Automatic annotation (TrEMBL):
Keyword terms of this UniProt record: FAD, Flavoprotein, NADP, Oxidoreductase
Keyword Oxidoreductase: yes
Family listed: Belongs to the FMO family.
Protein name: Flavin-containing monooxygenase
GO molecular function: flavin adenine dinucleotide binding; N,N-dimethylaniline monooxygenase activity; NADP binding
Domain of life: Eukaryota
Pfam families: FMO-like
């Protein structure tokens, strides 16, 4: 159990680290946030050229504070960092941050003590500091790019870079560019290159759907972001037997709805056949890398400035990339939009690292926050892929803070293990395989947050018919949860 006298170490000063620090301080807990960069913001402090949030700003907010009216619809890196600074100032937690510090190693000294080896990145000096709780808020991936070693890479005469490394489109000027990877960073790189390159080929084994803001004349927010709209998804792992039966009963209807949406998207967006997704939309809603429509990218595809090849890379030759269907794409520059390595395991010794090691489809821990068999270790925002990150990590943080402060009992190892096995069975039955499947929440974000709030004795339901309508039909944007989050910050079960 915890108490108000606990000292909490938070690794990572981005969206999750700030939310976690705020929640802990509201419970009277002492916090230190260790951040490698020179300011708060995490991955948004230093990212690739023109990186933006992939959701509209009204979905990428803390419940407590809104983006300013002048902020871009899809906030830029700088706008996100300024927003986090504003949040930290409003919560009065700036003094908790230690910038330019890196936690090199975390050791469990005893059942209730963590020893952190902390490096001052300006002086190189390393000190050892002790805490009663350790919270990892570094995101799902490390800052180490995942560089896939393709056959023949060493023979390539041009430049091979990771998507995280370009800071200007000048590197693409007058070049033949091949972008490998179909996620947001790949789309962004192909779009940026198309403005200045001679030729751009975008190679993606899986061409994902890009979701517009409207379905025909109808805004998608009420359709996708309401609890009723989330019924298009498979059942949540904690749904009751009758609810799961209803999902089974309506499965054919849900498939028809998803197919109709696909047809409308293709017609509405005038997507060239070469860029048609080769994955069902219903499946994409269960993946970690769903993206909103990038109109400039789609324009570049329509105009032939970006050629989409839905194939795998078989070999890299001295001046081209050989694809799985046998063709070659000429290249002067190759961009690897291939993601990031998982990173937090390297913090720990062998025993703990094995307990938080990835299975073939991700890390399965209690509520995506607590390893069942490691006391006083938690992950906030580091093992979850939700639709709206700031909102979800806020709920995670408030849930964890109540536990750390001793205002709620921690479940037993047996209870946590049983819950984890239920989650694992649900994911492996309904969700497509990917390396982080255990962390993917996406549209189940609201069921997930309802579950955490219920643990805290906070109900998301309000009395009255109008509130019932809002509960089921109103888009669940973060702003609408402000009152509930305020209630959760002071909720106690002990």
């Amino acid at each position: 159990m915890g108490s108000v006298g606990e000292r909490v170490a938070i690794i990572g000063g981005g969206i999750a680290g700030s939310a976690c620090c705020s929640a802990m301080r509201k419970r009277g807990l002492e916090c230190v946030v260790f951040e490698k960069q020179e300011r708060a913001g995490g991955l948004w402090v230093d990212n690739y050229y023109e990186a933006t949030v992939q959701l509209p700003k009204f979905m990428y907010e803390y419940p407590e504070i809104r983006f300013g009216k002048k902020v871009s619809k899809f906030p830029s890196m700088m706008e996100v960092c300024e927003y986090v600074d504003e949040f930290n100032a409003m919560q009065e937690i700036q003094s908790c941050f230690r910038f330019r510090t890196k936690v090199k190693k975390a050791e469990k000294e005893s059942d209730s003590v963590w020893a952190l080896y902390v490096e001052d990145m300006d002086t190189g000096a390393t000190t050892v500091e002790k805490f009663s709780w350790l919270v990892v808020c570094t995101g799902m991936f490390s800052s180490k790019p995942k560089r896939i070693k393709f056959l023949g890479s060493e023979s390539f005469k041009g430049i091979i870079i990771h998507s995280s490394e370009y800071r200007s489109p000048n590197i693409f000027n007058g070049k033949k560019v091949v972008v490998i990877g179909g996620g947001k960073s790949g789309i962004d790189a192909a779009r940026a290159a198309s403005a200045v390159a001679d030729e751009v080929v975008h190679v993606c084994r899986t061409r994902m759907w890009s979701i517009p803001e409207k379905l025909g004349p109808l805004p998608l927010a009420p359709l996708f972001l309401s609890r009723l709209g989330c019924w298009i998804l498979p059942p949540y792992y904690l749904d009751s037997g009758p609810v799961q039966m209803l999902h089974t009963l309506f499965r054919p209807l849900k498939l028809v709805i998803a197919l109709l949406m696909e047809l409308i998207f293709l017609i509405q967006l005038n997507v060239p056949y070469s860029a048609w997704p080769n994955i069902r939309f219903a499946e994409e809603t269960l993946r970690s890398n769903t993206t909103m429509l990038d109109e400039k990218y789609l324009d570049a595809v329509r105009n032939g400035k970006v050629q989409v090849r839905k194939h795998q890379v078989e070999e890299i030759k001295p001046s081209s990339v050989k694809l799985s269907e046998g063709s070659d794409a000429e290249a002067d520059v190759i961009v690897l939009a291939t993601g990031w390595e998982h990173g937090f395991q390297e913090l720990f010794d062998k025993d703990i690292a094995e307990k938080v090691a990835m299975e073939k489809d991700g890390l399965y821990i209690y509520k995506n926050i607590l390893p069942a068999d490691i006391d006083r270790l938690a992950f906030v925002g580091s093992n979850i892929a939700p639709l709206a990150a700031p909102f979800t990590v806020t709920i995670q943080s408030v849930w964890l803070a109540q536990l750390v402060a001793g205002h709620r009992l921690k479940p037993t190892i047996a209870e946590m293990t049983e819950d984890i096995e239920k989650l694992k069975a649900n994911r492996r039955r309904y969700w497509p395989f990917e390396e982080c499947r255990g962390a993917v929440v996406q549209g189940h974000m609201f069921g997930y947050c309802d579950d955490l709030l219920q643990d805290m004795s906070v109900s998301t339901k309000r009395r009255g018919f109008m509130n019932w309508l809002k509960y089921w039909f109103k888009p669940n944007i973060p702003l609408f949860w402000k009152e509930i989050v305020q209630e959760a910050h002071v909720a106690r079960k002990l």
